[in-house]
Amino acid sequence: MITTTPLRARLKTIENMLPLLIPLYVIQLALMIIALIDLFKREGMKSNTRLIWVFVIILINTIGPIVYLLAGRKDKPIDGD
Q1: Do 31 and 66 meet the contact criterion of CB atoms below 8 Å apart?
Q2: Helix 47-59 to helix 7-41 angle, to the nearest 10 degrees?
Q3: What are the distances in angstroms from CA 63 to CA 52, 66, 70?
Q4: What is the pTM of this model?
Q5: Mean pLDDT over each residue of the chain, to the nearest integer
Q6: Is the pLDDT of residue 16 over 80?
Q7: What are phi and psi of 75, to 5 degrees?
Q8: Which residue has the higher pLDDT, 4 or 65?
Q9: Under 8 Å between Cβ of 65 and 34
Q10: CA distance 14 to 58
Q11: 31/27 Cα distance (integer angstroms)
Q12: What is the Cα gyration radius of the chain?
């Protein structure tokens, strides 16, 4: 026999997890924004390559921006920073 958890218990569990989930979501969003800004500041990148990186950054959530920031930043940014 399969038992289901009552809705109130599920909501209570989600409520208890919010203090952990909110900072993780903020970090994920910040990484995504930083990676996208950096991506669009770069010169000399082919549009197909840029489009692929946009999909990687957006669709692969937390790992995508980290992969871009570690592996995709081979060129110097426009302003020479």
Answers
A1: yes
A2: 160
A3: 15, 5, 11
A4: 0.67
A5: 82
A6: yes
A7: -90, 160
A8: 65
A9: yes
A10: 25
A11: 6
A12: 19
When comparing pLDDT for 43 and 31, which is higher? 31
- Beta-carbon neighbour count of residue 72 at 10 Å? 21
**76-81 — which CB contacts under 8 Å span 24+ positions?**
77/38, 77/41, 77/42, 78/41, 78/42, 78/43, 79/41
Burial 11-22 (b: 16+ CB within 10 A, else e): eeeeeeeeeeee
Q: Are 68 and 36 in contact (CB under 8 A)?
A: no
- Helix, strand counts (H, E) of the chain: 3, 0
Residue whose structure tokens are 């038992």:
3
Residue 75 has pLDDT above 70, yes or no: no
Distance CA 21, CA 14 (A): 9
The two structure tokens encoding residue 73: 């930043």
Three-state DSSP class for 75? coil
With tokens 């209570």, the residue in question is 12
- Per-residue model confidence as pLDDT tens digits over 48-68: 889 998 998 888 877 888 888
